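Hey, I was hoping to borrow your eyes for a little while. No rush at all, and the record is pasted right below.
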Amino acid sequence: MKFIDQAIIQVISGNGGHGCISFRREKYIPKGGPDGGDGGDGGNVWIKSDKNLNTLIDLRFKKIFKAFNGENGSGKNCSGKKGKDITINVPIGTKIINYQTQEIIADLTEKEQKILIAKGGWHGLGNTRFKSAINRTPRKRTMGIPGEKRYLQLELCLIADVGTLGMPNSGKSSLVKNISNAKTKTADYPFTTLQPILGSVVRNNKKFIIADIPGIIYRASSGSGLGIQFLKHLERCKILLHIVDLFPINYSNPIENIETVLQELKKHSKNLYEKPRWLIFNKIDLIKSLDQKKIIKEIKKKFELKEKYYFISATKKIGINQLCLDIISYLKK
């Protein structure tokens, strides 16, 4: 199924049913009193999070969601039937935004979370309601109130404990694939990951969710490449793993690659840039121990290396178990 993380929809709640003007007319009771019933309330529109969904693709094809109108009242004091509610199911992690004002209405971060997004119109009153000692034959009723109309912007931000970022082909997908149950594609060419993928990692009966997004390239914040449009899926992560290729296939400089990713991250979002971030140096099996020390020395010279760092081989599964255990310990704190 294609991954869609944005949709714009219109929701319309049901109109309230009108009140009725009616008088009791039966044999031997030629001049009975008023018996006009009330209308029914209009149906509501709800939005509910569904753990079985992971994309907003269904909302790309259906744009308008309308609840049912309340029925009008009738004689013999019969009230109109309430309009039927409708519920729109969305993935967990969906933000509901007022399209006109860009105000965040709700953020559905838990399963089975339900919010009333458009309330049905109030019912009208029948003429029975207006009977009094002064006016025994009221010819007055009220009309039902129209339902609400709202334009909504829905944005899906995946919920993960850990997120990966880095240049294309740095080994993010290989790492996620080898430590989790994620079925992510891996190959020796850039942009094998075309959409965010979630994986579940279990170690010592403890679990965390990891997100794999497409690689980030130079000028990504200006629209180049794929990764920048998916960076929002890292906003909920508690920690970021910055994967650095020590032996890039294009012979680029790992130090410059780190700088490129950090610059693009900072341009995109200050909050994301300031998240806890660990440097993960990949493809340790392809370089010598002496070269590892040289790289760390250069990095410390170039950056203020406050982050934790690890040397791993995602494909050979070197160092990844300890990395997972340390992540679990960090998340526990």
Remarks:
- The domain at 162-332 is CATH 3.40.50.300 (Rossmann fold).
- The helical segments are 58-61, 172-179, 254-268, 270-273, 289-302, 320-332.
